[in-house]
Amino acid sequence: MGIYVVGAVGILVFYCAVLAVGIWAGTKQKNRGDEEVLLAGRSIGLAVGVLTLIATWVGGGYINGTAEAMFNTGLAWCQVPIGYSLSLLFGVMLFVKPMREENYFTMLDPFQRKYGNRIGALLYLPALLGDIVWVGAILNALGSSLVVILELDPITSVVVSAVFAAVYTMVGGLYSVTYTDVLQLACIIIGLLLSTPYIYLNPAVDPQLVSSSDWLGHIEQQDIGEWLDVLFLITFGGIPWQGYFQRILSLRSLKIAQILSIVGMFGCVAMAIAPAFIGVVAKGTDWSSVPDFHRNVTKRDAEIILPLALRFLTPAWVSFFGLGAITAAVMSSADSSILASSSMFYRNIYKLAFRPNASEREMTWVMRISVLTITALSTLIALTVTSVYYLSYVSSDLVYVILFPQLLLVVHFSKYVNSYGCIASYVVGMVLRLLGGEEGLGLPPLIRYPMYNEETGDQKFPFRTFAMLGSLVSHLLVSGVTNHLFMNRVIDPARWDILGIFNEQSSDNELPAISTVSRNVDDQPIIRKDELVSDSNGGVANPAVETYRSLPA
After folding, report:
1. Are 472 and 425 contacting, i.e. CB atoms less than 8 angstroms apart?
2. Domain 3-394 classified CATH 1.20.1730.10?
3. What is the three-class DSSP state of 527?
4. Burial of residue 429, with CB atoms counted within 10 A of its CB: 0-12 exposed, 13-18 middle, 19 or more buried
5. Tens-place pLDDT, residues 490-541
6. DSSP states along 262-277
7. φ and ψ at 483, to 5 degrees?
8. Taking the model in full, what pTM does it have?
9. Domain ranges (residues) in the chain
């Protein structure tokens, strides 16, 4: 059999194995309640938690993009693995403890608890866009890999992969996603470790050329602002993702959650070593002497340099294992992001904001439809955008500019912010980011910041970070001003408080406080003090946390 048939059969077997594990894991689900569907009953241990977190972070865009960056520009500009690994470190420093102690279900819960369900739901849009673009990036990576290695039609390969991921995600929720991640991470490790030595030992590879190549890369003085901007974007824009918090909140204890983030950081760095090395080796290869290839590669081939190396620099049977690594990386990240956005829509948008009394059967269908919709949108992105590396960092863009400052303030400075500041911050961050332009999306820069390159059209000034800081400052400023004006009756709240968060009438109409269960530092259940949860119009909204319930000690 030729490589096409054998490879196609191998991919089919792999997909069936993943689907079987996903369906089996779904049987562990005890009911269709929020805690079971979204957080696997908060029962995930350290070993499985670490594996699923690494598998989620190390997607197809991660390993393909790392090889692409090392081939193109060297280590200096290979910021995705460094930034996303650092995001786990800052995540545990800033958010793990407070999010665990409040017993949240999703990343949007603190927003809805503070601002009400409908205003809090606005923050779903940048989170949704981030997940859709991220899944599109990794599906794009898979499509390009299958085209090179198996000569499969990219549309077919992307669509089939997306359908498989959607099916088992619908079946078992986080249980299915978590346990399939374990299998997928094993495939990634085996595939990369097996392929790398064969690639380096290929006769077309010149070891001297590899060792003497400029694999470190360099940063020009005029590029320092841009370099820092991208690094901050990836690092802090890599934190406010439901896929990350879904794993943090599903673990058995706070201590496990803290350990998981640190171990996961080192695991993600380790997983970047093999694709980075392959990118360097590909740069030191005489591709014109490679059998069945016979041409030089250029920077235009950088996006597919990893699958090219797997296809032409390794024996056929080895390339299948390498392909398995790429496929596993794609599936492990795709299912996590699909579930993440679906979970927030299921709970924070549909259930809390619009249909608080929806039946369990209705919510099951809402979850399934949202999974299919997000999968379809991500597949469309995957088939229309080219660069994997570009997609992998642009997916963090709006998350960094809008979500990061919002999450930082609502978690750590909740007393100083309000709904007016939230809306102002949202608008300011969005406008500043769009005015800075984005060449890959066809948006011209309407603001030309200092150091703007007229020839290339590049913003050398860290304009994304400037937009993020503008979002943060506007949030604090508008919240402070409105607090002063309304609370000191400089402006009559009964007439001008259109969101109903200051006027006395809305306070008189609030219902009794809702007791909730939280956990202390040692993750033992405690009864947290009563807390009021009001919607944007001043009335009591459905709580962003479950009504009082008992938790096992």
Report:
1. yes
2. yes
3. strand
4. buried
5. 988 888 988 888 864 344 333 333 333 444 434 444 333 333 344 443 333 3
6. HHHHHHHHHHHHHHHH
7. -60, -45
8. 0.82
9. 3-394
